[in-house]
From TrEMBL:
Span of domain Helicase ATP-binding: 40-151
Record protein name field: Helicase ATP-binding domain-containing protein
Any Pfam family: DEAD
Example GO molecular function: nucleic acid binding
GO annotations of cellular component type: cytosol
Highest taxon of the lineage: Eukaryota
PROSITE patterns: HELICASE_ATP_BIND_1
Species this protein is from: Gossypium stocksii
């Protein structure tokens, strides 16, 4: 069931990946979610953000805190290295979302992602979404996620992986 704040944005029901991940996300668990391209993985964590923003907007504005940062890992890494005071703003991060993890690691920017993970607080929640979860992503998640994270796989075993469908 969608929160009223999300319904007010025009969404009537959740997709399978949203329905499967939202309870774990709201419990504060780290999540690795595998779902095919086009299943609206992005909205699973954006729904959470919309609800949080509606609840925290006034408080955050008074404290001059960032509500959300959207950036490529390379650009965010560049800010950490070169923008005065930027790394200090990351100390308030509550949730780190890595979207399309398989693509991020395939693009050979793992060092940038690891720098970002090192810059945010250890107690923050990490959400990783990906269409495929090859061994490289599993190995990465071993270091990036808490040991009690949930792996949510809604790709049916009988169906093809997203990458093989796209080729």
């Amino acid at each position: 069931m969608l929160p009223n704040e999300v319904k007010n944005l025009g969404y009537e029901k959740m997709t399978l990946v949203q329905e499967a991940t939202l309870p774990a996300i709201l419990q504060g668990k780290d999540v690795l979610a595998k779902a095919k391209t086009g299943t609206r993985k992005t909205l699973a964590f954006l729904f959470l953000w919309e609800v949080e923003v509606l609840l925290q907007r006034k408080k955050n504005l008074r404290q001059n805190r960032c509500e959300i940062i959207v950036a490529t890992p390379t650009r965010l890494s560049d800010h950490i290295d070169n923008t005065r005071g930027f790394e200090g703003r990351l100390r308030d991060v509550n949730v780190l979302v890595l979207h399309e993890a398989d693509c991020l690691l395939a693009m050979r920017i793992r060092k940038d992602v690891e720098k970002i993970i090192a810059a945010v607080p250890e107690q923050q929640q990490t959400l990783i979404f990906s269409a495929t979860v090859p061994e490289e992503v599993h190995q990465f998640c071993h270091n990036a996620l808490r040991k009690d994270h949930e792996f949510i796989d809604i790709v049916q075993e009988s169906s093809e992986e997203t990458r093989s469908q796209a080729q």
